[in-house]
Amino acid sequence: MTITILNSAACIEDAPAKINLALHVTGQRQDGYHLIESLAVFSRYGDRVTVTAAREDSFSVAGPFAAQIPLDAGNLAMRARDALRRTVSSERTMPVAILLEKNLPVASGIGGGSSDAAATLRALARHWNIKDDLSELALRLGADVPMCLVGRPLVASGIGEIVEPVAMFPQLHLVLVNPGVEIATPDVFRALQNRQNPPLPPLPEDRGVTAVVKWLGKTRNDLEVPARAVAPTIGDALTALGGAGALLARMSGSGATCFGLFETQDAARRAAGKIRDMEPGWFVVATSSTP
């Protein structure tokens, strides 16, 4: 592996929210990992990772959810740094300062920690001039990290590590709503009663917004029912999105963040304002997906 001397300029990578538009649980492996099929997109709103050269390694956090982020090796961004350095195994992976701007709520079903780890890998790879495929390393950090490393519309299968980008997928106008609760993913899977569900139907050939929304109506998030049993306020978030005019309202991942799809960016902004006025303590943001 060839590595050049560090560039002193900052390397900045966005860590977008991952939205599971559909998530089907199709089985469970003997090691306990669940098999899934999920159509996921990534939003223009999210966290941000900045990497700069430093005399010694450091990690700091800013942003509205900074207080909820551990500043030790339990943080996925720091684990990504250390794992990449071990893989490279070179003294030329010089110390770095990592700044995480944390704009997404934690433990919220939109891949915040996984996206932070993926963004850290991308930033460090640029900073250390590493050209290797990082997907295997990403999987060792977590099942969602490989898809976050791709960061574009995709279908994920297996435990999340098999990633197939989806071409010509439309931009979607979204409102993300989190009612202020953290949910541990293992708790949701423990509450899941049926682990053998049908897979995703074939994607529509027509990739227009109307056709995609119609197709999504035939899909599910199999974790929504058990997540609502763990945190009933998820139902309040879905009701709020429906009342604000969403074409489709659904929970993302294992929750508690929910999303609503809207016809236009203005409609999404108006809906976000309406929900924010009703529930000022909730996390509410209007955004769009990256096509």
Number of helix segments? 9
Number of strands: 10
Strand content bin: 25-35%
| Alpha-beta content class | alpha+beta
What is the CATH architecture descriptor of the largest domain? 2-Layer Sandwich
String of helices and strands: EEEHEHHHEEEHHHHEEHE
CATH topology of the largest domain: Ribosomal Protein S5, domain 2
Radius of gyration: 19 Å
Please state the overall shape, judged from the principal axes of the Cα atoms.
globular
Query: Helicity, in percent?
Result: 25-40%
- Which residue ranges are poorly predicted, with pLDDT under 50 across at least 5 consecutive positions? 1-7
On the 0 to 100 scale, the average pLDDT is: 94
Count of individual domains: 2
**What is the CA-CA span between the terminal residues?**
33 Å
CATH class of the largest domain: Alpha Beta
Summarize the structure.
31% of the residues lie in helices and 27% in strands.
Q: In terms of topology, how is this protein built?
A:
Elements (H helix, E strand, L loop, with lengths): L10 E18 L5 E20 L4 E5 L13 H13 L7 E6 L10 H16 L7 H7 L3 H6 L3 E5 L3 E4 L7 E6 L6 H7 L17 H8 L7 H7 L2 H11 L4 E4 L6 E5 L2 H14 L4 E6 L3
Parallel strand pairs: 3-4
Antiparallel strand pairs: 1-2, 2-4, 2-5, 5-6, 7-9, 7-10, 8-9
